[in-house]
Amino acid sequence: MIEEGVIRVATPEEMRELGRLLGEELRPGDTICLRGDLGAGKTTLTQGIAAGMGTSGTVASPTFTLVHEHPGKVPLFHMDAYRLDSAEELWDLGFDDYLRAGGVVVIEWGERVSEALPDDRLTLALAHAGDARLVSILAHGERARELESILRAKWGAREVA
Length: 161
Ligand SMILES: Nc1ncnc2c1ncn2[C@@H]1O[C@H](COP(=O)(O)OP(=O)(O)OP(=O)(O)O)[C@@H](O)[C@H]1O
Ligand SMILES: [Mg+2]
Hints:
Bound molecules: adenosine-5'-triphosphate, magnesium ion
Largest sheet: 7 strands, mixed
Strand order of the largest sheet: 1-7-6-2-5-4-3
Radius of gyration: 15 Å
Number of helices: 5
CATH architecture: 3-Layer(aba) Sandwich
């Protein structure tokens, strides 16, 4: 049985569309935490977020570089914590500078360093379902709950259209 409220995403294009709808809403200081196994679609979703934010540069996996900076009206800091073992390692890499830089932080494998993340954050948990993906939304904090309800409304409107 599919958990209530879980979003089913059939294709990579749809995953980018989900990201785009979210990216359009993001403001400086928002933090998005992306969970999910290898190949679940975290980077694909981030490509959509970047498109929605209108940032420049191609979104690729920052696994080896930890952070990719995408300039824009609001900059996007795309991070990957796959190779990190603790919140301290994230701080050592200057994470608070990114948080204070007036941009949006999207962090893949963010749960690996959850103690370092802002209390208010929107977590999207991606899971394989054959060729499709299931996306669960977990909102911590007031702003995250606001983003969740906006995203659910936009996604729902899109399915009806
Ligand atoms: N429904 C779908 N949604 C998203 N990606 C899909 C879907 N179906 C197939 N794919 C493919 O799955 C792959 C997802 O790769 P992606 O790099 O986005 O995953 P990831 O979660 O970032 O992986 P990693 O943990 O290695 O960073 C892509 O090749 C994408 O085209
Ligand atoms: Mg990735």
